[in-house]
Design goal:
single chain; 391 residues; alpha/beta; Rossmann fold; DNA polymerase, domain 1; 4 domains; 12 helices; 34% helix
């Protein structure tokens, strides 16, 4: 059972890349050492600077120390403030803390820098212990840093997970006997993390909480069944957090967008069309499928105009919903639209529907009576209603 989550800092919690790389180049330039291309400077993020300058540039200990000093000359005054926490990390930290997990940091970054950035983001109070290095002793191994953190947190290696973005973090976790989570939003590659023995490799920040709670399902193999015009079907072999094997039948969907368009006199544009899987005609808000990589709002604007012959001055983001998470990865983005103007309708050749307008209060009544059952329409209507009540 996981009791503690320990994080690396650079590339895991905080995107420090710009400041670290610019400061490294600053140091190399100052000593006339040719710096690699910008992308290659990623190797500075993670391991101790002293080690990197020695191993990557064949520097003696004495010369490497001079390079570190020159690096900190820029980083302390400028580079440190070129950092920002990854989107979703602050909320993850708060969620883990609210779930009762002990939180720690195990970083090769000087503790002064770590604490200053945590204070700046108002996150320091969420961590039970910060295990980092001092300016005068920055060559401590990741295993040692992690073991010190576990000791201070009062947990056994089997009761913790180590989250990081580089092989250095995975190696340290393995040496300390801790399960590791390699994250793909940092500076390491998937191959690097797998090669270094990561227990899990994830690309979503929320996956860390799922792993800590013992709910994560790791994909081992994907067997394609059918690739259709819109949908792809596959059966996946997975491993549960308890080590048991299972399968999941999945449908991949490109996702869609729904628009609840509200007139000045409180009417909502609706479409009624025959839905073949249910063998009936149902009422829905106008909606459509996203093209690959398309901005959801662009999709929504197009569908509103094509299906209803309406354009809008204002759009309000209502978030997104997962309509059927048990078997499909479909996401539906929802928007409210106001300031409406009627233009020419432009239906697809195979699209046959009826456009109507319905009072928002009537729509809510029909939802509550069960007459309207479309999930995206229900979600959009109540989100809009709640938004208007708040205002």
């Amino acid at each position: 059972m996981v009791k503690a989550v320990v994080f690396d800092f650079d590339g895991t919690l905080c995107d420090t890349g710009v400041g670290v790389k610019k400061s490294a180049k600053y140091a190399l330039d100052a000593f006339g050492i040719k710096a690699p291309e910008w992308e290659e400077l990623d190797f500075f993020i993670g391991p101790p600077l002293l080690v990197t300058f020695q191993e990557k540039f064949n520097q003696s200990v004495t010369d490497a120390e001079k390079l570190v000093k020159k690096y900190r000359e820029r980083y302390t005054n400028i580079g440190l403030y070129e950092s920002e926490f990854y989107d979703g990390i602050p909320q993850l930290i708060k969620d883990l803390k609210s779930q009762g997990f002990k939180l720690g940091i195990a970083s090769s970054k000087p503790i002064n820098y770590v604490e200053e950035l945590l204070i700046k983001a108002d996150l320091q109070s969420y961590f039970d212990y910060i295990s980092a290095v001092s300016f005068n002793a920055d060559c401590e191994s990741k295993q040692s840093i992690l073991e010190r953190c576990l000791n201070e947190l009062g947990v056994e290696p089997s009761e913790a997970i180590m989250v990081g973005d580089r092989f250095y973090d995975m190696d340290g976790a393995r040496g300390a006997g801790v399960d590791s989570v390699g994250v793909l939003w940092g500076f390491g590659s998937k191959f690097e993390l797998i090669e270094s023995g990561a227990t899990y490799v994830v690309d979503k920040i929320q996956d860390i909480e799922s792993i800590a709670l013992g709910m994560y399902e790791r994909t081992e193999n994907v067997q394609g069944i059918h690739n259709g015009r819109v949908l792809n079907f596959h059966v996946d072999d997975i491993t549960l957090c308890n080590g048991e094997k299972a399968t999941r039948e999945c449908v991949d969907h490109p996702g869609g967008v729904g628009i609840i368009a509200l007139t000045d006199d409180e009417y909502v544009y609706m479409v009624r069309q025959f839905r073949y899987p249910y063998k009936e005609s149902i009422y829905e808000i106008p909606a459509g499928k996203r093209e690959k990589g398309e901005d959801p709002l662009k999709t929504g604007k197009r569908e509103l105009q094509e299906e209803c012959g309406v354009v809008a001055e204002n759009y309000i983001d209502l978030g997104k919903i997962y309509p059927s998470p048990g078997y499909t990865n479909e996401e539906i983005y929802l928007y409210a639209a106001t300031g409406l103007t009627e233009v020419k309708q432009n239906l697809d050749e195979d699209e046959f529907l009826q456009v109507t307008k319905m009072k928002l209060t009537t729509l809510i009544t029909k939802i509550m009576s069960g007459e309207i059952t479309d999930a995206k329409t229900i979600a959009a209507a109540f989100k809009l209603k709640e938004l208007r009540n708040i205002k």
